[in-house]
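Minutes, structural biology subgroup

Action item carried over from last meeting: produce the structure token record for Phenylacetate-coenzyme A ligase (Desulfacinum infernum DSM 9756). EB confirmed the sequence was re-checked against the source entry. Recorded below for completeness.
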Amino acid sequence: MLQNLQAEESYWDAKHEALSRDGLEALQVDRLRETVRRARRAPFYRERLQEISLEDIRSPQDVAHLPFTTKQDLRDAYPYGFLCQPKDRFVRLHVSSGTTGQATAVFYTRKDLDTWADLMARCLYMTGARPGDTFQNLTGYGLFTGGLGFHYGAERLGMLTIPSGAGNSKRQIQLMKDFDTTVIHIIPSYALRLMDVMQELGLDPKRDLSLRIAYLGAEPYSEEVRSRVEAFYGVKVFNSYGLSEMNGPGVAFECRFQNGLHIWEDAYLVEIVDPDTLEPVPEGRLGELVLTTLTREGMPLIRYRTKDLTRILPGDCPCGRPHRRLDRIQGRSDDMFILKGVNIFPIQVEQVLMAIPEVGNNYRIVLDRQNNVDTMTVEVEVTDKIFVEDMRHLQRIRNRITKELKSELLVTPAVSLVEPHSLPKNDGKAVRLIDRRNL
Ligand SMILES: [Zn+2]
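Output recorded by EB:
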């Protein structure tokens, strides 16, 4: 059975997708040496890598002798401290928003953009997208790497690409109808919001549209949201992972077996470390994802601490690719909040809510402090159908949500049911957490 599956698998880049594990590791060693050699030309790494001898890099594990790089390092060296080529060799830069501090910048040479587009095309092809598909990109363009990253990958693959951008839901739907869109890229909160718009218009995507594949990424989302989106749109949803420091999307992606995300180990060297001790954790154990770029020529990054918590899934994938698989990201260590001494990820709240059918597609978490006690209120939109029903029913739903949240989070939040479509709407990334405790 396994061999049959492997024989059927077709690759965008067989040279890098279908090589043996030994072949992959040999390639990693070559590329890691080259990366260190190049990185030494960047002001940030010049002294830090001085003592490293290239001959001492004999296995991928030898990356552990190199120093870590953090987001703070990127901020401190802003804007040019990580460039290892003259400025006139670069053709693009993306700046990540400085919501929690100073901005960071990532620069691309022409070759870096080419490599990235090819990596993205590899991801999309792996999920079954083909030339002949129409791809509609419903994410923001501009400085957000998700927009242009998917755009160039889709064109490289040969899909007819519609750069529709985020928002303007009615026009999005019109474009889907007029050009028989089959593949979409959309952020999870907008996918939920667009569902509401389609329902209001009386549109059933399974009957009225041609969609078959959806890529969801850029925000954490739960399996419950995936199920909702798949059921409503009639698509197969694929999970995408990337971060702007590592180009953007295209770092890891689900194959059609959807048992974790293959991380492209010919382009990124993977480590999972304990976030406190920075020592490697055993395979299968949760830890912080640390990545080293292996193909970037203009701005290599060594042992970059992503702050994303995940694990390497043990075992081989039936698709036959030797690239190991990451578990779904558990959340950024930055997203976590602490309430009454308990660590909570917003995604835990989403998992509970989205599994309850009476819950609509929008919610938010409000943290506050009253009389020196931290409080947490979860505001939940209910579906149109429920809101007109009697108060006793609403009370039952509220009790159920409270009970299930308490069992998941180990603290008891206040739950407030609100009218459908009454919470603030967002066509960009959703703001799910309002923390008023330090105001
Ligand atoms: Zn696979």
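Discussion: Residues 255, 257, 262, 317, 319, 321 surround zinc ion (CB under 6 Å).
Next step: EB to file the record with the rest of the batch.
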